[in-house]
Protein 1
Amino acid sequence: MTTGRSDEQFRRVRLGNIKRLLLDRYGPTLPDDDAGLADLFELLLPVSMRSSPERFMRNVIETWAPWMDAERAFDLIRQIETTPIRLRLRTAKNLGERLNLTNQERERLALRTIAAADMTDEQMAEWRRVKKNKRNRLYMQRARRKAGTNSQATSISRRKPWTTLGISRSSWYRGQRVRQSVRQIHGQVNSYIGNHETVSPRLLRRKKMETVKGQRFRKKVSKEEKDEARVTERDTTDFESKTTKLSHVRSDVTTVQLNDTKQSINQTSILPDSNICNFPISCRVFIREIVPVPLGPAGDDLADFR
């Protein structure tokens, strides 16, 4: 049992189909003859099934049949309103016969709610079956094409390339499996090299040699860096040891010079106080810098202190 909403949807779809057919046949205006009047009557039947039908039927008459006067339009509306509801609901076959619809027009305009008048029910069933098979075949073709498969017309079984090569079918497929494995290996190599370019064995050998040379060069550079770091470390150690030895020698020379200076001060008579010459605790001698100089006779090195 259909609901009110589905009936209203069917009514709107059928009204649209009738308008499409009349617009294709006559244009925006129906002819002023018996055929135009009959087509206008069939157009007004779906309109009369809606709410407030009189106003909408008058609007349809003014649009599609402007040549009709008000009195004839009033009589046509009254005739439709007095028609029983069961007679207003045309079947698809009855409406197709009244509109003289052909199957070519039906398929071209996609009129799904009107049946063709030039085909019987058996012919329509066979036509629907053929269309369904064609639709399913096209759907499967699109699905196979999307999955990456070839059509049957260009399939290997139809072309039979082994007959051209003069070998058996099994031998040809064995060769294809070997070629497929080689293509997979080349594809993996190409993915590492980039840009999916074709790699020849000569190019592979060249790439391998460049890689080996690069590794040898890196090993050579790292070895030279290690040798240079070892030499630098050895030189630094030698420099530190030499610096330490020189500091010890400098301290020894300074001690010897200080002792000689004290002895020279004790031997001079320029300082009257002997306690100062003996360097008591209260005597402070400030020496800014002691430089190793050659010592002369006693008393000569005291000229700087005068």
Note: The two ends are 140 Å apart (CA to CA).
Protein 2
Amino acid sequence: MQQVGQSPLLDPFLCLHKHKNGMVSPNYGVVLYYYPRLPAVIPIHFNALGRPDAWGSKSTMMSLLYVSIGLYGVFTLLGFFVQYVNYSVKVTVENAVRLYPLARLMTESLKLEILLMLLYTTWGMIQVAIKKANGLSGWLLPVFLVVLGISLIYFISATLKAQ
């Protein structure tokens, strides 16, 4: 809840909400801009080193866009129904005012992280398809998993402290 006199810029939920909303639009724009320029066959899977190891139709690019839009929708809905999230602590009337905003912030954070990863993956697939790159960074998956892990550890520990 925003208190009187508190700047909306200092509210982490509002900041994340505004910034992650901008993550679907670039993905959509990148796909729509490059789609007509893509060859009929594009890389659709990358090995652990980031090199393409499977190729398929360029329509797969649209599937990746639909996945990002779908995940955006699921995480947005989840943010509205945080009272149904499985908490690691017992939720009471007293601690719900601390736990629910924390859960909402967690869903927004995870949404942003996942949308950024999908945006990077989409951009990388396009760059490989148009021969401007040889593959994705081999660090993509490890960095993504570490970032998600740090977020989850932070929010689980914050939940335990907020009980």
Note: Confidence is low (pLDDT under 50) at residues 1-10.
Protein 3
Amino acid sequence: MFVIKHYEATTGILKPRMPETMRKEERVIELENVSYSYPTTPNALKNITLKVGKGEIIGVIGPNGAGKSTLLKTLNGLVPQFYGGEFKGRVVICGMSTEEHSVAELTTKVGLVFQNPEDQLSGVATSVYEEVAFGLSMLGFPHEVIREKVLDSIKKVGLSGFENRSPFSLSGGEQQRLAIATVLAIKPEVLVLDEPVAQLDPIGKSEVLNVIKQLKKEKLTIVIAEHEIEELATFVDRIIVLYNGGITATGSTKDVLTKVEMLKNIGIDSPSVTELTYVLNNEYGFSFKDSPINLSEAIKIYKALGNLK
């Protein structure tokens, strides 16, 4: 269990506190004192230390420019191997150092899904089946193994029956689910998603988020950066807050998202029901001892007023 960093009243910021000890064999992701500057942008990341255990679902939040995408790109070596710049510290994924192994090698352990699904797709496959099979073929898997992996991945993202459809005939949500399938087919130990629903309409968002929630049941380690905090509140185990390239807060989802004032100070809104409870307590004299982070929790808490049946 991870304990939230302690709140510093003078600044409104959560100051670092070390998490409880995690056995080394449980660690899937380890970052130690990671700092990074792009060739044209200094201090994109500042002294990041982070440990993620097998099967954890981690949400990464922060205002625009906080370093969320950069942090995620360190997990498969794109930072610094592809982008260059100045990198300090150490990143180890599934026992593999990102400085000692190529991005191609790390891809077998870490699957990264981009914000725009068109950035993920090959552009040469003429069908959904071929798109999912493309990466497996490049890795040299035999035909019978490819077929099994492709059909399994397509099923997991809810695209069974779409095998012969062109990737470019799909909706945005369907394309993003296809992008996730191309990653799942390789059977990574870690799935990393960089704002996967940012460019989707409400239906597409719902489709993609439902897939991610289903993947949680498979004990896959997932790191997701997302602005849809109300959705994150329903399924992630732990939240990491980034601000100006550094970790400002980390803790259980509830502990972090109920720090309404702290989050507002850095430009992040808590879930609506959390903010409502905060206002009721602080401006209207209510004394709710618990603060909800999703609708189901809010209903239980507000029933105590006797107004909801």
Note: The CA atoms of residues 84 and 258 lie 38 Å apart.
Protein 4
Amino acid sequence: MIDDDKAAGDAGGSTHHLAPLQLELPFAAERRRPYRVLIDDLFHFGNIERMEEERYEFGAFDTPAEALAACEFVVNRCLQWLYVQKPGISAGELLEHYLGFGDDPFVRADRDHERVDFSARDYAETRVKIIAGQASELQSQVLDLDEAVVRIAGRLRAPRA
């Protein structure tokens, strides 16, 4: 806490001045990044007006590679979230849920920059197989561990001769 009298120079003959607040806001003067990742909600697919109302910007990027990586991140995050809601579903069911309720990222480039194509559907089709496959492998490992724990617990409870 600052003593107002000292700050004003009324006490002790010394003057204490507060430095003016200087904020450097890097984003205020930042140049416009040419690649924007926008997200539509697939729940509204087919209703263009509603999709555009619900559309939001995920971020802006300097290069096509950064924008594509952002799109992949969005799809992966969405697929993982959907899988957690219904663990154990097949890759086909996961894709169906994604196409009905998922996020649909795309890249919009400034006029003077190269166009960037990204198909969230195509990317999701490859990712659901991996996510569902990894999950079923992990579930199998968990079941194997559960069986091992049961066997060990049974041995621990068995009376010794």
Note: The chain is about 50% helix and 10% strand.
